[in-house]
Amino acid sequence: MLNFELYNPTNYVFGKGQTSKLTDLVPKNTKILLAYGGGSIFKNGVYDQVKAALPTSEIIEFGGIEPNPRYETLMKAVAIIRKENIGFILAVGGGSVIDGVKFISAAVKFDGNPMDILHKRLLIKDVTQVIPFGTVLTLPATGSEMNSGAVITIDQTQEKLSFGGSALFPKFSICDPTVIESLPKRQIQNGIVDAFTHVMEQYLTYPTDALLQDRIAESILQTLAEIGPGVAENPTDYKLASNYMWCATMALNGLIQKGVPTDWATHMIGHELTALYEIDHARTLAIIGPNLYRIMFETKKEKLAQYGERVFNIQGNSTEEKAEKAIEKTVDFFHKMGMLTKLSENTTNYENTADFIVKRFKERGWLAMGEKQNITPEKVREIVELSY
Fold first, then answer.
1. CB 320 within 8 A of CB 303
2. DSSP character for 70?
């Protein structure tokens, strides 16, 4: 097992009716920015719950944070916070809104060009240099409600870039599983696949004798595979909804990545597909992930075989046979979750995609990715072309 440090200060408040606890969680006598997305919180009752819990707070609202939140939009919120002397941000939404608020939090007091936070992938560690924030989660998927990372899109350059740091954990996150009842089926499908792939990025590498981390990761994968199709069809089933929400948080709150190598190349390639073609984030992961496993088969086959045995009860005569079956089972699961797993099924004019992504990675100096730093630009080309 590798050395590690585990730090997670987020107060995670889970269950029905917990939004009422905002009254005690939000700081008193502090001006608040209420940040949200496209307005679904007005239709599903969450906005009314938030306002009811904060009857005396001075609140300025900022809506319109996009899926794949845009730098250009977020900088408008930064200007409002500076002008109005706002001391706390409340993110009400899914991962995109929460990620956007993390950037806003970091950018307000940043000394320099805030775009450098993204281009230089800065780690924001000084809590005195950020605006504190909490969240009310409306769409389980990214785990952003209990981690310190975020991904932001820059419209101007068609880039989707990540950043983070220990100062960017939410102070609290209210997670009421009943919020998924009004979500479109597609968003729930995306959320399941996003969470599933988050686990795979931290688990599907190579054995490092981290027995407990493996078992926790496998239990999340098993649970998502078991409940995924059902929760997409029956989001009012509280048993399914609550397990889905908790799985999505556990998939990326830092616990299962401790003591193990991690990959993340599927995400790095997938982000480019979203930036280029506006394909839903989870759907880019379903396109790229299985083909990355195929191209990197030799270095991943031991964990692929273990995953196949433990998550899907696969039997086989060799490690290779079990590993190959595990990839096919993964694709089958993605199909059950409504994913189209080829790039050509999701967009047109994709023929030069591999060239574009390889060129961009070389320009950024991303020449060695993955848990063994063996995913070179040429491997990226193979993965993307196999995904056509």
1. no
2. B
